[in-house]
Amino acid sequence: MPQISERHSLPADVDPSAAELASRVDHTLLKPEASAEQVETLCQEALELGFASVCVNGLWTSLVAEKLNGSQVLTCTVVGFPLGASTSETKAFEAQEAVANGAQEIDMVIDVAAARAGDQAALEAEIHAVAQVVHAGGAELKVIIEACLLTDDQKVLACQAAVAAGADYVKTSTGFSTSGATAQDVALMRKTVGEEIGVKASGGVRTRDAAVEMLRAGASRIGASAGAALLEA
Predict the structure, then answer these.
(1) Mind telling me the catalytic residues?
(2) How far apart, in whole angstroms, are the C-alpha atoms of residue 204 and residue 130?
(3) How far from the centroid of its chain's Cα atoms is residue 53's Cα?
(4) Is the peptide bond before 32 cis (omega within 30 degrees of 0)?
(5) Can you tell me the distance from the alpha carbon of 145 to that of 139, in angstroms, rounded to the nearest whole number?
(6) Closest by CA position to 82, among listed 117, 102, 53, 57
(7) 107 bridge partner residues
(8) What confidence score (pLDDT) does residue 15 get?
(9) Gyration radius of the chain over CA positions
(10) Gap between the Cα atoms of 189 and 196, Å rounded
(11) How confident is the model at residue 196 (pLDDT cuts 50, 70, 90)?
């Protein structure tokens, strides 16, 4: 397989190996009832299988950073999750705290109402506020647009706002709303942002075939709570 940037989509003629696929997966546990033991197991699986990151709620950031310390697996924390209906200042504070606790990637939910209202300026201001603190801490920002709640025009507007505000990735979904990632949404998001930033498909991606479909549609990262299942032929 030729070398492909972690922010680039998978060429249509490439069939990734298990290791290559794993390197694109954020191994995820965001259930509110998740225990410390489950988070530790998640980290161990990520280390053994070579996932890109472990993605958790802010409560577990320090634990994950400790367990992954010295490895290539990144610590990822969600912000404004799952609704996105908190203030920009709150999201920025959450992000700053998460980075201070060891997060290397932040997955932030946008103000969905602003996207539905067509208020690109409000979206840019919010994303920029979070991006500033994330980048100041040496981390990267993924922006969750919750595509299932938006029209195609609103998805494009949200992605354009994310690019203008300095995001490193755009992401389809929280996995906690009415539906998750679709190949059509991924393709639209990739077309909108170009190849300069990443696209993360998240929500409902549970098989290898589904993951490869998302990568070929334009995703560069996959968020999944069933990460190990994605590696099965």
Answers:
(1) 107, 171, 200
(2) 27
(3) 10
(4) no
(5) 19
(6) 57
(7) 78, 142
(8) 84
(9) 16
(10) 12
(11) confident
The amino acid occupying position 213 is E
Question: What's the pLDDT band for 6 if we cut at 50, 70, 90?
Answer: low
The Cβ of residue 58 has, within 10 Å, a number of other Cβ atoms equal to 17
Amino acid symbol at 128 = H
Of 216, 178, 215, nearest to 200 by C-alpha is 215
- Provide the terminal-to-terminal Cα distance of the chain, rounded to the nearest Å: 17
**pLDDT for the residue 4:** 45
Q: What percent of the chain has pLDDT over 90?
A: 90
In angstroms, the CA 183 to CA 215 distance is: 9
Pairing of strands 53-56, 105-109: unpaired
* Prediction pTM value: 0.95
- Report how far residue 128's alpha carbon sits from residue 15's, in angstroms, rounded to the nearest whole number: 36
Question: Other C-beta atoms within 10 Å of 31: how many?
Answer: 11
Q: Region 180-185: what's the mean pLDDT?
A: 97
Report which of 111, 79, 81, 110 is spatially closest to residue 96, judged by C-alpha positions. Answer: 79
In whole numbers, what is the pLDDT of the chain averaged over residues?
94
List Cα–Cα distances, 201 to 19, 98, 137, 145, in angstroms: 18, 22, 25, 11
> Within the chain, what is the greatest distance between any pair of CA atoms?
45
